[in-house]
Amino acid sequence: MSFGRFDQSGGQPPMSTINITPLVDVMLVLVVVLIVTAPLLVSAIKLDLPQADAASSGQASASVTVVIDAAGQTYWGDQPVTLDALAQQLRRSARANPHTEVQLHADQTVSYGRMVQVIHTAQQAGLSHVGLATDAGAPPRPLHSP
Hints:
Layout: H1 21-42, E1 63-68, E2 74-76, E3 79-81, H2 83-96, E4 101-106, H3 112-124, E5 129-132
Parallel strand pairs: 1-4, 4-5
Antiparallel strand pairs: 1-2, 2-3
Helix pairs in contact: 2-3
């Protein structure tokens, strides 16, 4: 039983050149696609990031802690406060040091709207540096319960 020919006489010899024209065409199309899409990916979100130069900073970074518990109650340190009292405390901190950072510790069940109220209050008081505290050691909780 024979599957091939042993006689190689006749017929065309194998082609020994490579045609690179299709390769060049494909590469040029990919370059054009990259040139068109790259600016869209880079400039999707415009940010004005703050400059950080800790060595030349003349003043130490001060911070205050604001806590929102699961019930939505706001605390200044360990004392419960209303939103108006919080605004007064934040204004005093802003007068003392306008670069004071507000560290917001909020329970993960607190509504987004409540957190925005506190952040807006800090911004109205003149404090634009707001940090959201997280617990790095805890495993993430699923967003939806099964």
